Amino acid sequence: MRPLNLFAVTVAAMLVAPAQEPQDTPTIKVEVDVVHILCSVRDKRGSLISTLGKDDFIVKEDGKAQEIRYFARESDLPLTLGLLVDVSKSQEHLIEIERRAAVQFFSQVLRKKDMAFLISFGPEVELLQDYTNSQTLLRNGLDELHVRGAVGGPLPGPVPTISQPRGTVLHDAVYLAANEKLRGEVGRKAIVLITDGIDTGSRMKLEQAVEAAQKADAIVYSIYYYDPSAYYQGGFSFGGGNDSALRKMSEETGGRLFKVSKKNTLDDIFKQIQEEMRSQYSIGYSPVNPAKDGSFRRLEVDTARKDLKVQARKGYYAVKSGSS
Fold first, then answer.
1. Residue-level pLDDT, tens digit, the chain, 324 residues
2. Beta strands 296-303 and 57-61: pairing type?
3. What's this model's pTM, rounded to 2 decimal places?
4. Among residues 34, 111, 138, 284, which is most buried (max CB within 10 A)?
């Protein structure tokens, strides 16, 4: 287990001198000559539909129709996957369940050409296992999941503390996973995030985490796992989990928000994510607006069938080669 020192340096440098970026940091290169979109389609009952063709889809960029030039059903293309697990004090009683379910998830979802990495986050972000296809290495990394207490103070209550403790750097974890690990990769990329949704002490804002995931073309699957007992002290309730940030990250990147319950266990959710990642469509088009001006382009993906719902990212950044 090791802290993500490079990550911490990168974040600190951005805060001190936003106009300067380390020369050895990979840059975002989003060639908009062809825009690629991964999407899933479900019917009214929520069942995945995997039998559609190119002519069944309608794509719009900033409200303008686009001609689909490339199309494929993505059931077996290589996948790069990052699992991010909340190890803050509020998750203390859930970590063993998460560890066991994640072992099973990796064994079922990863195939020969797939790669995965494992990150834990509490007061700090730690890389427990770098890119690997080895079930043994991933299992060893999961064995390193342990609760990390808040830095600078106890679990915060409803009244902000002077020390502003770093208890759960959720936004930082997503930003760093996307910006430092995934943006230099190609192909299908996904982040699976397990947390109660509370952020305490992140340097990055929610909007920056979402933007980093969008620029990395990474889909975020959020798993809201909340332990109510963690927010009771001395007979008083100090708030609780919150899924609003998780919902935004998932919806903006084309993923989904899942909630763990007695009827929908963590094992069940991992199976749903696995099924979805193996039932995607890949759509490619050359945009009517070819300008690489760094602007955010809003995407709309739909089908000709009104009884179906498409799940896809909400947009992309038209960035010049060599710029961030």
1. 455 544 443 443 333 333 333 444 333 344 448 899 999 999 999 999 999 999 999 999 999 999 999 999 876 678 999 999 999 988 999 999 999 999 999 999 999 999 999 999 999 999 999 999 999 999 999 999 999 866 544 444 333 333 445 679 999 999 999 999 999 898 899 999 999 999 999 999 999 999 999 999 999 999 999 888 766 555 444 556 799 999 999 999 999 999 999 999 999 999 999 999 989 999 999 999 999 898 999 999 999 999 999 999 999 999 865 555
2. antiparallel
3. 0.83
4. 138
Tokens matching residue 136: 């043994």
CA separation for the pair 275, 298 (Å, rounded)? 27
